Amino acid sequence: MLKDKALGFIKKQILDLNDFSYEVEEDDQFIHVIFTEALGKEIEKEFTFKLVNDTLYMHSISYGWKPVEKGVANKYFWIDLLTKD
């Protein structure tokens, strides 16, 4: 369920966009999505996902844990993905 929700969120975000590359790693409690390309540019960004009471949360270094399925919380995904380190 966690993997389906996390990948569903990622696919929904980049639905009609090209030039994205990422890998998915799983462990017992988390899904890790590691981007190596975004909008044609090489990047190195990792996002970690977990479920809390059936709500998908995403962790980024910049913003910590944020629920990403509610309201406009996906902005944290885009801001962190496109911000240069």
Residues in helices, as a percent range? 10-25%
Q: Which sequence of SSEs, written as H and E, runs from N to C? A: HEEEEEH
Structural class designation: alpha+beta
Show unreliable segments.
none
Gyration radius, in Å? 12 Å
The biggest sheet, with number of strands, parallel, antiparallel or mixed sense and barrel status, is: 5 strands, antiparallel
Q: Domains counted in the coordinates: how many?
A: 1
Task: Note the gap between the termini.
Answer: 31 Å
Separate helix tally: 2
Strand order of the largest sheet: 1-2-3-4-5
Shape estimate: globular
Describe the structure.
- There is one protein chain.
- With 85 residues, this protein is of the alpha+beta class.
- The protein has one domain (2-82).
- It is built from 2 helices and 5 strands; from the N terminus they run αβββββα.
- It has helices at 2-13, 75-82; strands spanning 21-26, 31-38, 41-52, 55-60, 64-67.
- It has a 5-stranded antiparallel beta sheet, with helices on one face.
- The N and C termini lie far apart (31 Å).
- The mean pLDDT is 91.
